[in-house]
């Protein structure tokens, strides 16, 4: 038996840090949306568990979220299973685009079918949440308001698709690295009014939305990797209505109000730029 599964990346339209919990994790308030940029995974029954990767390099040790997802399913059910997993990697790593989380979520969904575990989606979401804060969001597609550390999701209807150009400057950044810099800098949240921003985005008014949004993690990320600022500035110069870092970086996306402008920006930026769109 062979199963194929797509793992869709995401952008953070908005990200605010609203507090810090006793366990050290930061409380967030975010608007997140799936993008068409995706990885491709295939799963085949086998006596052992193995992973091969083509495309962008990913960790091959215990940090790999595909292997961790498979192991988590076996730990939950108390049964040993095997699978040959092949990952074709298109989403940049250490980019804030949710690539590892998307691969993790896709693995949980696919192996639940391949191994005939029949676990309900609620259980898979709980397992996913234990592996990464963005995994539950990445197990669906669309637009959502996400709070806490990623565990509180409110799905919303996405009425319009926006063309995007994504730049991934430098070697990338890790989430702990950026939050550590946030703490060292004594940063504060942006106090975004995401209820109003959410309404503007839902109505398709990118210009109004651009005045209400932001990413509170940009300042610490930019001190670690100044190329982020340069990428954001370049996208704005090329006509992006919204241009900001996604997640904890280091990828920066530009949202355009029409495809002609987005394609023209991609043409100027060349091979290092990714042309995609919000999904669905």
What does this structure look like?
The structure is a single chain. This protein is α+β, with helices and mostly antiparallel strands and 280 residues long. The chain is 35% helix and 29% strand. It contains ten helices and ten strands. The chain has helices spanning 65-77, 99-114, 121-131, 135-138, 175-185, 194-203, 206-210, 218-224, 227-237, 259-269; strands spanning 2-20, 26-45, 49-55, 83-89, 143-148, 152-156, 163-167, 242-245, 252-255, 273-277. Strands 1, 2, 3, 4, 5 and 6 form a six-stranded mixed β-sheet that branches. Strand 3 (49-55), helix 1 (65-77) and strand 4 form a beta-alpha-beta unit. Helix 1 runs parallel beside helix 2, helix 2 runs antiparallel to helix 3 and helix 5 (175-185) crosses helix 8 (218-224).
Per-chain topology:
Elements: E1 2-20, E2 26-45, E3 49-55, H1 65-77, E4 83-89, H2 99-114, H3 121-131, H4 135-138, E5 143-148, E6 152-156, E7 163-167, H5 175-185, H6 194-203, H7 206-210, H8 218-224, H9 227-237, E8 242-245, E9 252-255, H10 259-269, E10 273-277
Parallel strand pairs: 3-4
Antiparallel strand pairs: 1-2, 2-4, 2-5, 5-6, 7-9, 7-10, 8-9
């Amino acid at each position: 038996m062979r199963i194929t599964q797509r793992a869709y990346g995401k952008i953070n339209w908005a990200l605010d840090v609203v507090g810090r919990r006793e366990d050290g994790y930061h409380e967030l308030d975010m608007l997140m949306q799936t993008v068409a940029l995706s990885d491709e995974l295939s799963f085949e029954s086998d006596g052992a568990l193995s992973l091969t990767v083509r495309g962008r390099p990913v960790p091959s040790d215990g940090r790999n979220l595909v292997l961790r997802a498979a192991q988590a399913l076996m730990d939950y059910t108390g049964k040993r299973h095997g699978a040959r997993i092949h990952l074709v990697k298109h989403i940049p790593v250490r980019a804030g685009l949710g690539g590892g989380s998307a691969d993790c979520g896709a693995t949980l969904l696919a192996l639940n079918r391949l191994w005939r575990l029949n676990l309900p989606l609620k259980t898979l979401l709980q397992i996913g949440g234990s592996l990464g804060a963005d995994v539950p969001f990445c197990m669906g597609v669309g637009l959502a308001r996400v709070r806490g550390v990623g565990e509180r999701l409110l799905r919303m209807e996405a009425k319009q698709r926006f063309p995007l150009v994504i730049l991934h400057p430098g070697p990338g950044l890790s989430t702990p690295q950026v939050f550590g810099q946030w703490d060292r800098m004594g940063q504060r949240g942006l106090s975004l009014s995401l209820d109003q921003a959410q309404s503007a985005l839902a109505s398709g008014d990118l210009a109004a939305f651009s005045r209400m949004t932001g990413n509170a993690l940009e300042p610490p990320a930019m001190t670690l990797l100044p190329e982020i600022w340069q990428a954001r500035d370049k996208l704005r110069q090329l006509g992006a209505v919204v241009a900001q870092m996604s997640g904890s970086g280091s990828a920066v996306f530009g949202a355009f109000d029409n495809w002609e402008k987005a394609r023209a920006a991609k043409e100027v930026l060349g091979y290092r730029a990714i042309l995609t769109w919000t999904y669905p």
